[in-house]
Amino acid sequence: MKRILPLLFILLSLTVSAQKPEQEINAFMDAWHKAAATADSEGFFGRMSDECIYIGTDKTERWLRDELKEWSKKYFARDKAWDFKPLERKVYFDQKKNTAWFNETLDTWMGVCRASGILIKEKKTGWKLKHYHLAVTIDNKLINSFLALVKSEPNDQKEEKTVIAIIKQLFDGMREGNGTKVQGVFAENARLITTGIRESKPISRKEEVEKFVSAVNNKPKDQIWDERIENYDVKIDDGMASVWTPYMFYLNDTLSHCGVNAFQLVKTEEGWKISQIMDTRRKEGCED
User: ∠ CA(219), CA(225), CA(231), 5° rounding?
Assistant: First the structure.
């Protein structure tokens, strides 16, 4: 009996130890969801890495953490941002237990949703959410009704989402330092113009797309060009689109300047392309 007790103790300890990483992830994710339910902005966004990607249920929703934070300010200003209650979760780890990935089922106002995500364990800060993908669920027997509903969406709404996606690709490419992604959004002979008033005098400066793409490719690797968009005001007629986007531009986490972008897009055989961007830039009157 004396020999059995130490063995049982060791086995119990190993079991508890083996469960601990999964318990950490469950506690982390439960706290993350609770932070949204209680409109705790720091508790929610503080658990996401700087470069965390959040993919929502809408086809246009691919947010970087700070983009999502800016967009959701109005929700976190309430008593509750959104309340997603976890129903079940499966967690998996790499061999070193420094990377975890999971899938979970949630009870939400949209019905039962499924989500998956990736977490990285950082030395100084512990676990951080790196990627989160939320999706609604549809019973197989309702698929035909769902398809009919999607196909009935007004064409102008579909076009608006596509136009916004092109503009988001531009900003994603800037953040990533990916000139190829940036180049891909422009039409042939596109123009870039900065305009405004400086010292009571109007200014207008043009820049070649090729030089801009080269600047994106060659920017220092430790720099992140983060242009955060407040909203998209889209107007479309036939093969022409105009988009007005107030913005704030951050160099890494430091606010550099703000202004408004005025996009002109044309519909080509390859889809929507940016034919002109006219922007204003100022350092005064920017709200950080």
Answer: 155
Rounded distance between C-alpha atoms, residue 286 and residue 288, angstroms: 6
Q: Is residue 284 part of a domain?
A: no
Give the whole-angstrom CA distance, residue 200 versus residue 181: 37
Structural domain span for residue 199: 155-279
CA–CA gap between residue 51 and residue 9 (Å, rounded): 43
Distance of CA 88 to the CA centre of its chain: 25
In tens, the pLDDT along 47-99 reads 999 999 999 998 888 999 999 999 899 999 999 999 999 999 999 999 999 99
Residue 92 phi/psi, 5-degree rounding, is: -135, 155
Tell me: do 161 and 113 sit in the same domain: no
**Residue 1 reports pLDDT greater than 70:** no
Residue 288 domain flag: no
Based on the fold, state whether residues 231 and 120 are members of the same structural domain. no
Nearest C-alpha neighbor of 216 from the set 253, 249, 172 = 172
Which residue intervals of 178-282 are DSSP H helices? 179-183, 209-218
The DSSP symbol for 282 reads: B
User: What beta strand segments (E) does the chain contain?
Assistant: 48-55, 62-64, 85-93, 99-108, 111-122, 126-136, 186-198, 201-207, 225-229, 233-237, 240-251, 254-268, 271-279
- Whether the pTM exceeds 0.90: the reply is no
Residues in the chain: 288
Structure tokens at 46: 């503080």
